[in-house]
Amino acid sequence: SKVRYMIYMFHNCTSLKSIPLIDTSNVTRMSHMFCNCKSLEFVPLLDTSKVEKMEYLFYNCITLESVPLFDTSKVVHMGSIFYNCKELKSVPLFNTSKVGYMERLFQNCTSLKTVPELDTSKVVYMNSMFNNCTSLRCCSWGLSCPSNFNELDNQYLRTSYSGWFTPYITN
């Protein structure tokens, strides 16, 4: 397929339960692609090797429990990908070495229990990344995790883990 942009492709397909077989091999933008697909339960492994922007990809997919390990090696924007995915329990270790935006990445993921150690060396914005992740109790990032993940945002990181997450977060 020669398609490069699949922005909003399935947006508001509220009855979509699984993703059909689609060729995503040349896609560079998947922003909002499955946004508000409230019945989405299954996501196959899509070719995301050329994708640079995938913000809001699964925004408000409230029944989604897991996702496969996508190739995210070229992604620079991941903001709100899993926002309000209330049934999401865990995520694989994505390559986030080029990501600059992770704001609201897991906000309102109330069933999320674990998050692998993500590379945040290029991250500029991670505000509200774990806001309202009420089931998240610890992380595997080698830190003393805060008792309240709602507070884990740029301001919290500036005062509690200065320099750990990223050199771009400054006082």
In short:
It contains one helix and no strands. It is low in regular secondary structure. The C terminus is likely disordered.
**End-to-end span in angstroms?**
46 Å
Parts with pLDDT < 50 across at least 5 consecutive residues: 142-151, 154-171
Main sheet overview? none
Query: What is the helix/strand order?
Result: H
Query: Which range does the strand content fall in?
Result: under 5%
Rounded to an integer in angstroms, the radius of gyration calculated over CA atoms is 16 Å
The averaged pLDDT comes out at 84
Structure class: little secondary structure
The number of helical runs is: 1
Instruction: Give the CA-based shape.
Output: globular
Based on DSSP secondary structure assignment, what is the total number of beta strands? 0
Helicity level: under 10%
